[in-house]
Amino acid sequence: MSLNKKTRIAVFVSGGGTNLQALIDAAKRGEIPSGELALVLASNDKAYALTRAAENNIPSVVVKRKDYADQIAYEEAVKAVLAENGIDMIVLAGFMTILSENFTSAYPKRIVNVHPSLIPSFCGAGFYGLHVHEAALEYGVKVTGATVHYVNEIPDGGEIILQKAVEILEGDTAEVLQKRVMEHAEWILLPKAVELVAKKLQA
Ligand code: GAR
Predict the structure, then answer these.
(1) C-alpha 113 to ligand 1 mean position (Å)
(2) What is the pLDDT of residues 110-159, one digit of tens each?
(3) Ligand 1, atom nearest to 96 Cα
């Protein structure tokens, strides 16, 4: 058993929060021993992820981009919330607000993102949520998957931590594929990657 203090993790969310739920469930099973889910930060107050946080006694905060005059003012407000909460590591779990280099450079190798494709396919600007799966189906690839990677100034361009492939089946719709990628890849990979990074940050 480690005597180190657990890495304090903030999970950034915008929507349903099924990846947040996967982290909560993994933590309950003892699969994230190096980290503690210390804060949920949502980009909007309608995010169902906030309900998941409340149900699991995780403090949460809503910080909306539109409440700030510009990107820098918004990012400084987010940084202040993180500092107040003693956050060591950030997980982007379906977080749909852009973070610029001003933000990402403040947390080198401390921000991870889950993306629903095998990077470098179907990633970068404009590829988020269901659009990623629509693009994979339109291209006609037979295999897709999910990637957890470090976040830097290049959208979906940081070092890859874990990847898992998922088959595309005849007749798949974007919604069906999204669900398969979540169940078979994202919800498995994200807790594993979070533990790997949280453990490194403890050392
Ligand atoms: C997930 O599929 C996640 O990989 C994706 O948004 C969904 C959020 O679902 N993220 C991106 O597309 C980021 N580029 P969730 O709120 O249920 O976790």
Answers:
(1) 9
(2) 999 999 999 999 999 999 999 999 999 999 999 999 999 999 999 999 99
(3) 13
